[in-house]
Amino acid sequence: MADDERAAFEAYARTGQRRLYRTAYLLCGDTEGAQDLTQTTLAKLFQHWRRASRADNLDAYAKTVLVRTFVAERRRSVRDLLAHNRNAPRPQPNPAPGADLRVTLLALLAELPPRARAMVVLRYWDDLSVETVASLLRCSESTVKSQCSRSLVRLRARMGDVQLYSTGS
Predict the structure, then answer these.
(1) What would the pLDDT profile of 105-132 be if each residue is shown by its tens digit?
(2) Structural contact between residues 104 and 143, judged by C-beta atoms closer than 8 angstroms
(3) Which residues does the UniProt record annotate as the domain RNA polymerase sigma factor 70 region 4 type (predicted)?
(4) Residue 165 or residue 111, greater confidence
(5) At residue 95, does pLDDT exceed 50?
(6) CA–CA gap between residue 13 and residue 60 (Å, rounded)
(7) 9, 49, 109, 165: which sits with the fewest CB atoms below 10 Å from its CB?
(8) Widest distance between CA atoms in the chain
(9) pTM of the model
(10) Which of 16, 23, 47 shows the shortest CA–CA distance to 37?
């Protein structure tokens, strides 16, 4: 890689790392996983920088790499976990009415399958359109709509009595 290409990548990595980390944190639910996912994404961008740097929207390209890496890693880890832990009961978080909403939402997001979680984060947290999410995840718009709808129903049911809009009075 030429020095000017390396400098362009380093400049992008410095400015884009925070945005990538924020989305990675929402997807992973923990700082270590988000850091790993962000670094993996940046490594993949570096590896294919010539192609990535020619993208019309470099941030969208990077977010696509991030989300696809997350989904692939989760599928792999779920498959490994199932192979090693067939009958282990899964702990169920029980959000208490006084719990911090952010912590509760992250715990509930972690219960969603990786692809559905990615759709909810991209659609409602990053405020991307249905078309954009479908493009990022290589699926139809109707899949995004139905998965988001089902996921929101599931999240609302698990939220129970937690007051979403209270100010903690």
Answers:
(1) 888 888 899 899 999 999 988 889 999 9
(2) no
(3) 104-155
(4) 111
(5) no
(6) 14
(7) 165
(8) 58
(9) 0.63
(10) 23
